[in-house]
Amino acid sequence: MDSLNSLIDGFGTALTPINLMWAVIGVLLGTAIGVLPGIGPAMAVALLLPVTYGLEPTGAFIMFAGIYYGAMFGGSTTSILLNTPGESAAVVAAIEGNPMAKSGRGSQALAAAAVGHFAGGLIGTILLVALAPTIAELAVDIGAPDYFAIMVLAFIAVTSVLGSSRIRGLASLLIGLTIGLVGLDTMTGQQRLTFGSLQLSDGIDVVIVAVGLFAIGEALWVAAHLRRNAAAPIPVGRPWLDKSDLKRTWKPWLRGPFIGFPFGAIPAGGAEIPTFLSYVTEKRLSKNKNEFGKGAIEGVAGPESAASASAAGTLVSMLTLGLPTTAVAAVMLAAFQQYGIQPGPLLFEREPDLVWGLIASLFVGMVLLLALNLPLAPVWAKLLQIPRPYLYAGILFFAGVGAYAVGGEALDLVILLIIGLIGLGMRRYGLPVLPAVIGVILGPAAEQQLRRALQMSDGSVSGLVNTPFSVTIYLIIAVLLAWPLLRKKFQSRRNVSA
């Protein structure tokens, strides 16, 4: 009841004209930034830090939260329409959203994403209010073996449900893990696959990899087949979701937050793991499995809902522990320190107006984003009516600008082209793209957690399975690996008995 009263007071703070103005500015900036590949919410918040020196802290953080949520909304727009993820959390949306757009259902995909973000953000923020202390305690108790087990689960799942075969999924994952090795070893400082280049010492940014594999690879693939197959203009389609779409999306919208929120509260890859796990879950549970890979609306609704809820989960650890679990949370933590405020267990007592005003502004931001994005879905979808040569020329231009914006190095453009050629080769030989991106994102973190776990156990492999949580995860992995064989045996027995 105390939380509810505090939240009501927070709405009183968030709905003042000046704070409402900062919320509107934040969601507009965030949506625009999310659409541009390579910039992302973390860079946007970092760039705006100096601008907010003169602002009152509550207004500044309300604007930052609006940028965070808005960028996750905007990132899915180009991911769905142009197969160009605006930021890493929108990577999964391209798998089903882009085929939907190509078949004239871009408006429905964007609407499903917008409502999914609203549902995920709303449920995630309610969970933030109700469960923040509990989730924070759980996050503290999870150790290196548990993190590594979670990441192995993501690797196994990604190779088992995507692509035409597990071998192709594994090959794609290995490509991503290899790219993830580029840079300095975090524990020894040894250079790996840098070829003597200082610019590669920090590794290859995941945005460059995602944009290269998705956007450049897709543009080169289309260019290679454009003359052979003259492309007709893509129809925009009807602008809203019909009853059949709603019937297929309401459950993913509600399931996504319960996958995304817990992962947002632990440092295990931000929104990337829950969006992927939500996609896997929807594919397993869907009655329309044959549509996955060709434009299943569940594959957009669930992951986008999970992504938005993970943003709320991220704020749990930052506000209650001072533990940033994503790049955006790290920048926001720096912003707190800029104002002389230290997030932690006492923050709710020392700065109740700021904290509850910030949480209340998340609810306000969700409504603003839905009101902004839902009517614009048909407008955005009309981008697809641009003639293909001009459309993909534009994609290449913005992909190049986005990649250059990440580090400001000309070498990034060369890397972008090389990764784009890898993406073209993957499409040529039927390798799914997502496992490679997952490998780049989670590979370095998985290696770090593996080495930490082995150090704690003096090199004993038993150190990887010394907690109930990790044992449970490995049992799930065993079921995932054995399920296809067991299913074949069951089917053969049924056929024999029949």
Describe the structure.
It contains 19 helices and 2 strands. It has 498 residues and is mostly helical. It has one domain (2-491). It has a two-stranded antiparallel ribbon. Strand 1 (183-184) and strand 2 form a beta hairpin. The termini are far apart. This is Tripartite tricarboxylate transporter permease. Keywords: Membrane, Transmembrane, Transmembrane helix.
Q: What integer value in Å does the Rg equal?
A: 22 Å
Quote the average pLDDT: 77
Give, in spatial order, the strands making up the sheet with the most strands: 1-2
Number of strands: 2
Largest sheet: 2 strands, antiparallel
- Helix-and-strand structural type: mainly alpha
Distance between the ends:
60 Å
What is the overall shape?
A: globular
Number of domains: 1
Relative strand content:
under 5%
User: How many DSSP helices?
Assistant: 19
Poorly predicted runs are none
Helix/strand order, N-terminal first:
HHHHHHHHEEHHHHHHHHHHH
Condensed summary:
The protein has 498 residues and is mainly alpha-helical. It is built from 19 helices and two strands.
Descriptors for this entry?
498 residues; mainly alpha; two-stranded antiparallel ribbon; 73% helix
Blueprint of the fold:
Layout: H1 2-14, H2 17-35, H3 40-48, H4 57-82, H5 93-102, H6 106-141, H7 144-161, H8 166-180, E1 183-184, E2 191-192, H9 206-226, H10 243-264, H11 272-285, H12 298-321, H13 327-338, H14 347-350, H15 352-381, H16 388-407, H17 410-428, H18 434-456, H19 468-497
